[in-house]
Amino acid sequence: HCYAYMFGNCSSLATAPVLPATTTADSCYMYMFENCTSITSAPELPSMVAAQNCYEAMFRGCTGLTECPELPATTINSSCYYRMFEDCTGIKLPAKLPATSLPYNCYQRMFEGCTELDISEEPTADYAWPYRIPTAGTGVDLGSATMNMFDDIKPDSPWSGTPEINKTYYLRYKIPEGIYHWNGIKWVLDADAITD
Questions:
Q1: Which residues pair with 76 in a beta bridge?
Q2: Are 189 and 180 in contact (CB under 8 A)?
Q3: Which residues are within 8 A (CB) of 43 and not within 5 positions of it... i.e. 6 or more apart?
Q4: How many CA atoms lie less than 13 Å away from 187 in the CB half-sphere?
């Protein structure tokens, strides 16, 4: 619980501190930035292992947040991302999630209430960008891994609720292939363009 609740309800906090740890402990960042409504970008989270409840509700209610940090962990534990971005009403794209062994409740309610998320079960001209859990490979659900993950997203989204693992869904907006920071400038690289 080392940083749990540390900045909760600090509505004037505009810049999150750097979090360079490459390992996580149980509940270490739980509710750390809950309702920090002035934060517009999340710190990098480089750990390849997500401990139990480590990111639970970490950014819950951060309405100024417009994109998810990269979540590279390939070994994850129960409830690690539970409610992580709940009620982040500025987020338009879900995070890529590479882990293939999905423990109990790991993604439960992760994006619930993210009212800019727009997802379809079928590809169309408007929903052309594929999204699946896991990002690649064959996932194994060890128990309620994705329960209510996308509940209460954009009101007119063609689909919402609990996603099936290993099934491809389609997003209205494209997830950039990479986000790079150089000389204080954020560069977004995808197959179509580089923008600053």
A1: 50
A2: yes
A3: 16, 17, 18, 19, 69
A4: 9
The answer to whether 25 and 4 are in contact (CB under 8 A) is no
pLDDT tens, residue by residue, 69-105: 999 999 999 999 999 999 999 999 999 999 999 999 9
Residue with tokens 């859990």: 133
Q: Are strands 129-132 and 75-76 parallel, antiparallel or unpaired?
A: unpaired
* Dist. CA 79–CA 68, nearest whole Å: 18
Closest C-alpha among 69, 86, 70 to residue 31: 86
Phi, psi of 27 (to 5 degrees): 65, 20
Tokens at 138, concatenated: 């064959």
> Which burial class, exposed, middle or buried, applies to 146 when counting CB atoms under 10 A from its CB (0-12, 13-18, 19+)?
buried
Cα–Cα dist 70/124, whole Å: 27
Please compute, for residue 8, the number of CA atoms within 13 A of its CA located in the half-sphere on the CB side. 12
Of 135, 137, 160, 134, which is closest to residue 149 (Cα–Cα)?
160
Write down the mean pLDDT value for the chain. 91
